[in-house]
Design a protein that fits this description.
Elements lengths: L6 H18 L3 H7 L4 H9 L18 H14 L1 H21 L2 H13 L3 E5 L15 E4 L3 E12 L4 E9 L9 E7 L5 E3 L13 E12 L3 E2 L5 H37 L1 E2 L2 E2 L4 H29 L5 H26 L9 H10 L8 H14 L1
Parallel strand pairs: 1-4
Antiparallel strand pairs: 2-3, 3-7, 4-5, 5-8, 6-7, 9-10
Helix pairs in contact: 1-4, 4-5, 4-7, 5-6, 5-7, 7-8, 7-9, 7-10, 8-9, 9-10, 9-11
Length: 380
């Protein structure tokens, strides 16, 4: 099924698959062990336009739909989920919020460099004491007449060491609850911005994740995104794009795990025959494939609703909830099919097993997705 992808979109998806197979997958274990994505791969993808997929053409991007971008993410994440989430955060969140809510001056100032990959974007929302509870963020942005002064710490920032453009959510009204949160574009090389040590993660280890500290960081008034006090609403709305991205990431990981399981089951001989001949293995493979297709359909539905301008909060959360659980199930079964070898790093399913776990955590936990879905159901 092409999910309404144009010929150009399908060609880009095929190009992403070829890039993943030739340049990313062969080195994915190396990226995982070294816990980084090499700069030369980032530069290569920048030259190919991969960081401008979501940016409109008038600002130097390719202007891909969410649906087309999702297909590309699936291919990249199937090879290396760590590099894939770098692209997703940059494109769906950092570029997305500037494009959707930023002033024309902000778009002209930042989107061309983000689209070219000359600058990488990061999304600074989570804090040490503010995860799912976004309204409790404590980073402050104090109005100093001709600028804002930002202070505080953001945690679990994807792309932290690479990012030159930071989307920062801060409290501009200490007594205003959700209405007291605003969003800003902050240049990472601003005085007072300090990037912490890399987090030692279980999976998606090629993705850079760190704390960023802000100490008396001056931000121009014009770098406010949207209206003052609109940050909370914007954060939750843009997270729909992030959740769709993670859904495609989960599908990509799961599909690759299934491919590895099928290959291994044909090669592994026990009791004088390939283990794929056994009904127990066949039942596992059929269940894995069915759940992957169901997840892919949910992800594409959410993406196409977003492209059509139709509210998709429930559908994005459904896709993210199901795909995260599906990927964990599929990767667990892939390890099981490999037996003891599935627990060895030499086999890719060990990495997929670790990479899949985070899909149920970031961009809103599984529990948070259930709350979003239930509240949307009940409000009617």
């Amino acid at each position: 099924m092409d999910f309404n992808l144009s010929e150009d979109d399908l060609e880009l998806k095929q190009m992403a698959r070829e890039l993943a197979e030739k340049r990313i997958y062969p080195h994915a274990l190396e990226f995982d062990e070294e816990e980084k994505t090499p700069q030369e791969l980032i530069d290569e993808c920048a030259e190919l336009g991969y960081f401008g997929f979501t940016v409109p053409e008038e600002y130097g991007g390719l202007g891909l739909s969410t649906t087309a971008f999702g297909g590309v993410l699936e291919e990249i994440c199937g090879a290396c989920a760590g590099f894939g989430i770098m692209m997703s955060v940059h494109g769906a969140l950092a570029c997305g919020i500037i494009n959707e809510y930023g002033s024309e001056d902000l778009k002209n100032k930042y989107l061309p460099d983000l689209a070219s990959g000359a600058k990488i974007g990061a999304y600074c929302l989570t804090e040490p004491n503010a995860g799912t509870d976004v309204a409790s963020i404590a980073v402050t942005a104090e109005d100093k007449n001709d600028h804002y002064l930002i202070n505080g710490t953001k945690s679990f920032v994807t792309n932290a060491v690479h990012a030159r453009v930071l989307i920062v959510f801060a409290r501009t009204g200490p007594d205003e609850g959700r209405a007291g949160i605003s969003a800003f574009v902050v240049d990472a090389d601003s005085e007072g911005v300090t990037v912490g040590q890399a987090e030692k993660k279980c999976g998606v280890r090629a993705s850079d994740t760190r704390e960023i500290n802000f100490q008396d960081v001056k931000v121009p008034k014009e770098n406010l995104i949207g209206e003052l006090g609109a940050g909370f609403k914007m954060a939750l709305t843009i997270l729909n794009s992030g959740r769709i991205g993670v859904s495609f990431q989960a599908v990509g990981i799961a599909q690759s795990a299934l491919n590895e399981a099928i290959k291994y089951s044909k090669e592994r001989v026990q009791f004088d025959q390939p283990i794929c001949n056994f009904q127990a293995i066949q039942f596992k493979l059929s269940e894995m494939a069915t759940r992957i297709d169901a997840g892919r359909l949910l992800a594409y539905r959410a993406a196409q609703l977003k492209d059509a301008g139709i509210p998709c909060q429930r559908e994005a959360s459904m896709a993210k909830l199901f795909c995260a659980q599906m990927a964990n199930y599929v990767c667990n079964e892939a390890v099981q099919i490999h037996g003891g070898y599935g627990y060895i790093k030499e086999y890719a399913v060990e990495r997929y097993f670790r990479d899949a776990r985070v899909a149920a955590l970031y961009e809103g936990t599984t529990e948070a997705q259930r709350l979003v879905i239930a509240r949307d159901l009940l409000k009617d």
